[in-house]
Each structure stands twice: as C-alpha cells, then as structure tokens.
Structure prediction request, 385 residues.
Amino acid sequence: MIKGQFPVEKFHSLETPFYYYDMDLLRQTLDAVKKEVEGKNYIVHYALKANANPRILREIASYGFGADCVSGNEILKALDCGFPASKIAFAGVGKTDKEIKIGLDNGIFCFNVESLPEMEAIDRLASETGNVAPVALRINPNVDAHTHRYITTGLEENKFGLNESDLPKAIDLIEKSKHLKLIGMHFHIGSQITDLSSFEDLCVKAVELQNWFSQRGISFEVLNVGGGLGINYHHPNHCPVADFEAYFRLFAKYLKLQENQTLHFELGRSFVAPCGSLIARTTYVKEGTTKKFLITDAGMSDLIRPALYQAFHHIENISSDKEYETYDVVGPVCESSDVFGEAVLLNQSRRGDFIAIRSAGAYGETMASMYNCRALPRSYFSDSL
Ligand SMILES: *Cc1c(COP(=O)(O)O)cnc(C)c1O
Prediction:
C-alpha cells in the first residue's frame, strides 16, 4: 500500500490531535478548478461550511473565488478573510432577521431564498433599511443525489428550498415588491455526489424550469447549480484531486447559457477535503476478545463524520512499517459511535505511533465540538510547520 507523505519528524514536538493541511495539494486543487472555469461565464463560490479555517479561507479568496455562506457569521468571516461582498451568496432555510441584516448592510451578491415567509422577511427588512435585496429562488428540484440520506437535500421530503407549487406566489411577491430584485435560480441537491448523472438530472430540471419562467416573461442573469461534487475517500493517494474536468464538462454540455447569463457553482468538499488529515497519537492498543482496538487521542469531537454519516476515511499508521494487522480504530469519547474505522489494515501499531485519518479537510475541523470537555483540535499547515 502507498502511504501519504507526512513530515512525521516535525510532528513529534506537537500536541495531538491536530489537523494537518497540505497547502501544496490545496493549491493544486484550486489551480485545477481555475483552469476549468477560466474564459467561461462561470463563477465558483467556495462553501465556507466545509472548512472555515482562516488560513484556508485566505488562500481560496486569493484565487478570486466567491463565497457561499449559510449563516450571518459565515458572511462576516468570509469578508474578514478577503472574499468581496459582491461574490457572497447567502443560503439557508432559517435566516434570522439579524443575519438578513448582515447581508443587506454589507451589500452581498445574492440571497438564495428558501421559502415564502423568508421572502417576506427579506422584503420587510430591505424596505426598513432602504435597500433592494438581490434574490435567487432556491428551488427544490426533486432530484435524487444518490448519496447518504443525511446529505441529500434536493428531494421533496427535504427541508430545503421552494417547491414548484410555491413559484407562482413567489413571482407575485417579487413583482409587488420594490425591495426585492429577482436575479436567478438556485439549486443544491446534496453532497459527496460521485454519480455525475445526478447533475445531469439537475440540468434537465433547470432547463425545464427556465422555460417555465420564460413563458411568464422572466429571465435570469444567474443560474446557480450549488455544489456537491464528491471526492475519492478510499484512495486519497491515487486520486488526490477531484475530477473537476468531468464535472464542469457535464454542465457545459447540458446547460447552454443565454447571453449575459453566468453559471454559478458552490463547491465545498471537493476544494478542501483531500488536503486535510486528522493526526492523532495511539494512546493504547487493546486486545479485545474477538478484535484488536487501536485507541487514538482523537475522537468524534474532533471528526464527527464517521459517527454522524457512517462516513469512510482511509486511515494510516505513519510511524510504522511493520507487517499489516487488523484493528478497529476508535476514539476516547464515551459513545459507542466514536469509531473511525472497523477492521482497518494498519502496520503493526504501538503506543505513541502517529495515525493519519485522511481526507478530513471538509466537515472535519468545522464540525469539531468540545464534547466530554475536550479541547478543540489545533491546525498546522505544511508550508509553515
Ligand atoms: C453545503 C452546501 C454547499 C457545498 O456542498 P459540498 O458538497 O461541500 O460541495 C453548496 N451549497 C449549499 C447551499 C450548501 O448548503
């Protein structure tokens, strides 16, 4: 088995657990995206919720990408880390008045509206503050993303977006309002999507809806197809960069843009997942009756994806090159779901060995908690270690 490249010598002086970010890989990924969208009417917004570490945000902002935010604090953080307001989209089913005002006060690019009552709230607040709010309708396209049900967002049973039956009322509201400006349509069908045909279904639906609107004399400058491109969690060393070429090619094929139309994307996971690893030390190797447990000093409070979504992460012992043995890799937190992997093949391990839990750059550090009064994990970067 090939292993990832880690400066293990340098890790010895650091307190574990921590997130380690390979900044070369992050830049390689950002370069790959930039190459695909250059010269096209495509604008990519990075979804901050995947990883909001300021170093990572500044790097992504420096490439000229926009931001996709799902809370008022994410908007403030994006601004703080160099994303211009003119490239910030704001989504979320539960935007509070306070958060909407943050968007209005800062003159963000667009509110992706997810319900009629939200639209009324934005209208009222925009009128109170003398603003015109640019809005895109987040429409639930009822397209199956073929991913874990906790990260599927585009089905009628999900809480996200307006249903098609809401659209006549939405149009009516906007036409009557002096403080809402309809600029686009928005979709987001889910995350960790590896079956690209789901995006094809989305395109077909988007074209259908666009025709429906155009029959009513409405055209859009903005089409926003959201994010969701998956990465290869099983082979982080073979496939470190997501297949952006195939992804963007699909949209170019199935969505013909009208003149003056821009196509927007909101990618989170595929930008940052591969470059991050959670590094832990082995606290104990414990012989169970039927299996061997490797207990790390990292737990579900540092990386909750396996416990929350039954997510898979490739795991390596980066201190050992002895023969392979099978371990259940678990954390110290008092929950039976605090398991990083079952029956994992690792080089024979002992107390103190460093364990790398790979592809943890997205929905890792951002979801860390202090459960069990644990400290939040720190972060280190390959170019400033
Ligand atoms: C989470 C989210 C994204 C990013 O999804 P990824 O799977 O990380 O690419 C994009 N848009 C919206 C509205 C989101 O909620």
